[in-house]
Design a protein that fits this description.
The complex is a heterodimer. By secondary structure, chain A is of the alpha/beta class. The longest helix of chain A has 25 residues, at about 245-270. In chain A, strand 3 (about 85-90), helix 3 (about 105-125) and strand 4 (about 130-135) form a beta-alpha-beta unit. Chain A contains nine helices and ten strands. Chain B is α/β, with parallel strands linked by helices. Chain B folds into five domains: about 1-75 and about 675-710, no CATH class; about 80-230 and about 620-655, von Willebrand factor, type A domain (Rossmann fold, 3-Layer(aba) Sandwich); about 235-330, Immunoglobulin-like (Sandwich); about 335-535, Rossmann fold (3-Layer(aba) Sandwich); about 555-615, Cupredoxins -  blue copper proteins (Immunoglobulin-like, Sandwich). Chain B is about 25% helix and about 30% strand. Chain B is built from 15 helices and 33 strands. In chain B, the strands form seven sheets. In chain B, strands 16-15-17-18-26-25-24-21-22 form a nine-stranded mixed β-sheet. Chain B has a five-stranded parallel β-sheet with strand order 5-4-6-7-32, with helices on both faces. Classes of the chains: A alpha/beta, B alpha/beta. The interface of A and B includes residues 234, 236 and 241 of A. Strand 8 of chain A pairs parallel with strand 2 (about 30-35) of chain B, so a sheet runs across the interface.
Chain lengths: ~300, ~700
């Protein structure tokens, strides 16, 4: 734990709270090391899986002789394999993530806390984790690591992350899907400020590749509740587009549209059994990670 | 489009104020950086455009509202041609003023006859549906004209027949205002006024005045009737000089008739006169050009009551300004009441009534020991002495009340014992005091003081110059005068001997000298006699037993109406001479008197004798020649020469009622206000974007709803 001391997005108190927290997956994962997560392959764990007929080439020592004695058949006893998984965290660093109005942190800062916390939790349970930042394309990719030492560059990299660039979540997810081969856990931390249909196309791509998906939807309270009032010229963080709006007049309709948008997103995730968690930037980061931990 | 009040159109640029405010006082917008505009576009993809459209629409509506208010105030109207279903409204004004009794230039008839004929033809040329009426330039109680527009041609033509010449000057302002009022009172604005007149300058060239309800929809046609050349000079009655005193039975009084030769030729005329007793007199008179003269007409009244005298001029070229009626009220016999013994007043009773029976002066003397006055027939003068006032304090209140009620009171030193040569007693009453007697063996000259006062001016009219009168006083008590007294006679060095004070409607005369040859030479001079008689008959009303005033007299010029006459009371007018007039109505509706005569107006106990003379302006031969009639100001009018054979239907083409746009403008304004209100209302605005109404269930914060499901 000495390594995490002094990281901006992983303060010691957070690391202490995350100790012992398990992040599970819903789907069978690929893995090369003994771990906590069940693999689709048979391995050497103590949990019986099934019998199969002996085949040439199988070690004779694996023949279940008692069964042969009873049935005069050569069968081999197979056991489930528990592996450590690889987790890929996709962090949205588009310009919109730099927004902060009512929350204590910008959405990106909050996302960095989430990413750091998750990475720490994954490593401390023996899994490997990698970090990819994106906006409308992949911006930075960190090699997977399974140790706290290996986590250091990613934690330091988070501190250097700045919001910028236009966001295109779907495009970035397509690229990420090509990069992260095999069955693994993919956690996407973003504000998902794009049309839900577009986002879900990217999500489906990852799902199709066998990824266990978790969407952490980071939003500022101001985006959720629109507390502003009066006439104002609203400037988009990403496109610099301007629009004159009377907040008082459109609040009700805005909230309704926001509700529909969140519902669409949540529904889309539910269909592919992806975990969807709405994280308001004024919520405790630990609570959000805990929610993910308990989700499975 | 015609505007009745176009002044408001000059304010139309004010309609641009909302634009100015929009540009200058534009609301400062905050700039807020937001993560995305996605949801705003989801609210309405054309949010910005719609907002701008709404803003400009609001702006346009506000500009429209101001413009509509100003347009409505400018009273717009659309003229609807008669051919398009419009209905003609027409008022015919016939000038019946005195000048119209002269001959016309185009026909062998008077101008009034031409005017009536023209009006007759005009009315006959109207469509049966047209509304019309006839109005007189000079009100004439003998001619009943319709009070509103009518389609009854027969009644109008009958009315025309009754119109006769007057001796009055018309009031163009009043006549046109009434004509416009009649048109306004019809069901729609606009209309035509036809005036048949000689356009005498005295009547039509007054100052530009604004009518109460100027109407650009009304057009006035003047049919100018030219005058024939005048034969001979013209002498007009320019005034009546009434006797400035109370009138009594049997006394000859002179009424002055002021005349003026208004022409540029010498005039030889006769002034004829007839009075209520049938006495006639004639006097010849020669007047040079523009010369004035006053002819005295003598009149003696044989009994108490109203009497009249009618005078007229013969022998000049124009008759409508030649006559005058004079009404007078005779009081019968006047009583002079002396409080005290005859010996106390010296020759004063004789000076007032030489015979004592009133044969010479119309005054009867009466002596009484105390101030007991006959209220039913109050004396014209009460004479008393200083010491009587001092001795009988009760008299003071009675006499003060009498004087305030219009009586005349004279206080003189008593000639009885106690006021001999050695008397030094000092007395005072009503603010005047009597100092100790002064005696001068050789006499001291009494001087006239305040010669310009009304008292002396009246006397000067009778006796001429009074400055040459030599009046000496051998004894007198100088007066100490308080405020309100006007010294009349003095003995120099501030010693006032006779003074006057108005008290209420009456008079108080205080004297420091008695009317005795032992005191002064007044009894021996004509001035002294005239003085005391003026004190008795000079001024002041005579209350009658009903409390009213039968002696009130009023002098009017034909065409004038009595002002401030018993407001609101039921009034009856009877003619003593002149038109056979018998009129009843409210006092504020008393008609103008169009012809000379003497009329008695009665309202309860109030009576007023109205003397009417002809208007001397009517003889002036100055007429408006141009095409503009000044008194109309900005109101559209056309002056045409009267043509007895004219086709009057030509004047009806294009003239019709106008449709007032005032109400439609107001309705449009209300509509604009409604739209502005709806567009400006926030609830409507949020719905106007095509979003479904947001109900309460939908207002639940979206975050919470998702959170609940997540939980």
């Amino acid at each position: 734990m000495a390594e995490s001391k002094g990281y901006r997005y992983l303060p010691p108190q957070m690391a202490e709270r995350l100790r012992g927290l398990e992040i599970a997956v819903r789907r069978l994962m690929d893995g090369s090391h003994q771990g906590l997560h069940r693999s689709p392959s048979f391995g050497s764990s103590v949990e019986f899986a099934e019998y199969r007929e002996y085949a040439h080439g199988d070690p004779i020592s694996r023949i279940d002789w008692p069964v042969y004695a009873r049935s005069d058949r050569y069968v081999i006893r197979q056991f489930h394999e528990d592996v450590s998984i690889r987790c890929t965290i996709l962090l949205d660093t588009s310009a919109s993530m730099g927004y902060r109005q009512d929350g204590p942190l910008s959405k990106l800062q909050y996302g960095c806390y989430l990413a750091a916390g998750l990475m720490y939790a994954m490593v401390q349970q023996g899994d490997t984790v990698s970090l990819i930042t994106f906006d409308n394309d992949i911006r930075r990719r960190y090699e997977p690591c399974g140790t706290f030492v290996g986590l250091r560059p990613m934690l330091l990299g988070l501190e250097e992350t700045e919001p910028g660039g236009p966001g295109d979540i779907e495009a970035a997810l397509h690229v990420a899907a090509e990069m992260a081969k095999g069955r693994s856990l993919v956690v996407i931390i973003s504000d998902f400020l794009q049309e839900p249909a577009s986002i879900l196309r990217g999500i489906h791509h990852l799902h199709h590749d066998g990824k266990d998906l978790t969407l952490l939807h980071v939003l500022d309270p101001a985006e959720l509740y629109l507390p502003m009032s009066g006439l104002a010229e609203v400037v988009s963080l990403e496109t610099r587009e301007k629009l004159t709006v009377d907040f008082r007049q459109i609040r009700d309709v805005y909230l309704e549209q926001m509700r529909l948008y969140l519902e669409q997103l949540r529904q889309g995730c539910q269909e592919i059994r992806a975990d969807y968690i709405l994280a308001e930037t004024r919520m405790d980061v630990y609570d959000v990670i805990l929610k993910r931990s308990r989700a499975v | 489009m015609i505007f009745a009040a176009p002044t408001f159109l000059f304010l139309l640029p004010l309609a641009g104020l909302p634009i100015l405010f929009h540009l200058v006082l534009k609301q400062k917008k905050r700039t807020i950086v937001f993560s995305t505009l996605m949801f705003f576009h989801r609210v309405d993809p054309k949010l910005n455009t719609r907002r701008k459209i709404r803003e400009w629409l609001l702006l346009a509506l506000r500009v429209l509202m101001i413009a509509l208010v100003l347009l409505a105030l400018s009273r717009p109207a659309i003229r609807s041609a008669a051919g398009d279903g419009g209905k003609l409204s027409l008022v015919v004004v016939v000038d019946n003023s005195g000048s119209m009794s002269a001959g016309s230039e185009t026909a062998d008839a008077t101008k009034l006859a031409c005017a009536k004929e023209g009006a007759r033809k005009l009315l006959s040329s109207l469509e049966p549906s047209a509304d019309a009426t006839v109005m007189l330039f000079v009100e004439d109680p003998l001619v009943a004209v319709p009070e509103s527009l009518t389609t009854d041609r027969g009644a109008l033509l009958e009315c025309l027949d009754r119109i006769g010449p007057t001796e009055a000057t018309g009031d163009a302002q009043r006549a046109l205002a009434k004509a416009f009022g009649l048109l306004h009172g019809s069901t729609a604005g606009g209309g035509v006024v036809h005036v048949f007149s000689d356009l005498q300058r005295a009547e039509w060239s007054g100052d530009l005045k604004r009518f109460d309800t100027p109407d650009r929809l009304i057009h006035v046609y003047f049919h100018r009737i030219g005058a024939s050349p005048q034969q001979g000079a013209n002498v007009a009655v320019t005034g009546i000089q009434f006797p400035e005193q109370r009138l009594f039975v049997g006394q000859p009084y002179e009424v002055g008739l002021a005349l003026r030769n208004t022409s540029d030729a010498a005039a030889d005329v006769r002034v004829n006169c007839i009075d209520s007793r049938g006495e006639r007199s004639t006097r010849s008179l020669s007047l040079q050009r523009q010369e004035t003269a006053t002819v005295g007409l003598s009149m003696t009244m044989g009994e108490q009551g109203h009497h009249w005298l009618k005078a007229w001029i013969e022998g000049d070229g124009f008759a409508a300004d030649n006559a005058a009626g004079v009404g007078l009220f005779c009081e019968g016999m006047g009583t002079v009441q002396f409080i005290g013994e005859p010996i106390q007043f010296g020759v004063l009773p004789v000076a007032l009534s030489p015979s004592g029976g009133g044969q010479l002066t119309g005054l009867v003397t009466k002596f009484s020991p105390s101030a007991q006055l006959d209220k039913g027939n109050p004396p014209v003068l009460v004479a008393t002495t200083w010491d009587r006032l001092e001795a009988a304090s009760g008299d003071s209140a009675v006499l003060t009340s009498y004087a305030e009620g219009g009586g005349s009171l004279l206080v003189v030193p008593s000639l009885s014992r106690g006021y001999g040569a050695s008397a030094t007693q000092e007395l005072s009453w009503a603010g005047a005091g009597l100092r100790a007697r002064e005696a001068y063996k050789s006499g001291v000259r009494l001087e006239v003081m305040n010669r310009d006062c009304h008292f002396w001016r009246q006397i000067e009219r009778i006796v001429g110059d009074i400055s040459t009168e030599q009046i000496a006083a051998y004894a007198f008590c100088p007066l100490d005068l308080g405020s309100g007294f006007t010294p009349l006679l003095g003995a120099g060095a501030g010693k006032v001997v006779l003074a006057h004070k108005s008290l209420g409607t009456g008079n108080i005369f205080v004297s420091g000298t008695a009317f005795s040859s032992r005191w002064n030479t007044l009894p021996l001079s004509g001035l002294g006699v005239v003085m005391v008689q003026r004190m008795a008959v000079g001024t002041g009303p005579v209350p009658d037993s009903q409390g009213g005033s039968p002696s009130r007299m009023l002098s009017l010029v034909a065409g004038e109406r009595p002002e401030a006459w018993s407001a609101g009371a039921e009034t009856q007018i009877l003619s003593l001479t002149g038109d056979a007039l018998e009129w009843k109505g409210r006092s504020n509706e008393v008609p103008a008197f169009p012809r000379t005569g003497v009329y008695l107006m009665t309202a309860g106990a109030d009576k007023c004798c109205v003397s009417v003379r002809a208007s001397d302006k009517e003889g002036e031969r100055l007429f408006i020649e141009g095409s503009t009639v000044p008194v109309l100001g900005p109101i559209g009018h056309t002056v045409v020469s009267f043509d007895p054979d004219a086709d009057y239907s030509q004047y009806h083409a294009g003239q019709a009622r106008a449709v007032e746009m005032y109400i439609p403008m107001l309705l449009l304004l209300m509509l604009a206000m409604l739209f502005e209100g709806l567009l400006g209302a926030s609830r409507f605005r949020s719905r106007s974007w095509g979003i479904l109404p947001v109900f309460s269930w939908a207002r639940r914060p979206c975050y919470e709803s998702v959170q609940e499901r997540d939980a």
